Amino acid sequence: MGGKEVRLVKSRKFWRYAVCLFVVAAVLTGVVVFQQSAAAAKGDKAPNFSLKDINGKECKLSDYKGKVVVINFFATW
Description:
This protein is mostly helical. Helix content is about 50%, strand content about 10%. The chain has 1 helix and 2 strands. The protein has one helix at about 1-40, and strands at about 50, 60. The longest helix is centred in the first third of the chain and has 37 residues, at about 1-40.
């Protein structure tokens, strides 16, 4: 019976370490991917997007291709 208990304890330890290692690897992978996708370097082109203006007309960034565009993210609240 002693050999069975030792194997069971070793098996539990193995699975604990395996799960911990998997979680650490998943978190590190997520951090690296997030940092690479979230950071925009100076000179990068902005992705195309569309918004509605005050009058409800759709305005796309691609409509202003070749022009200087200043986007102000200001809130009055």
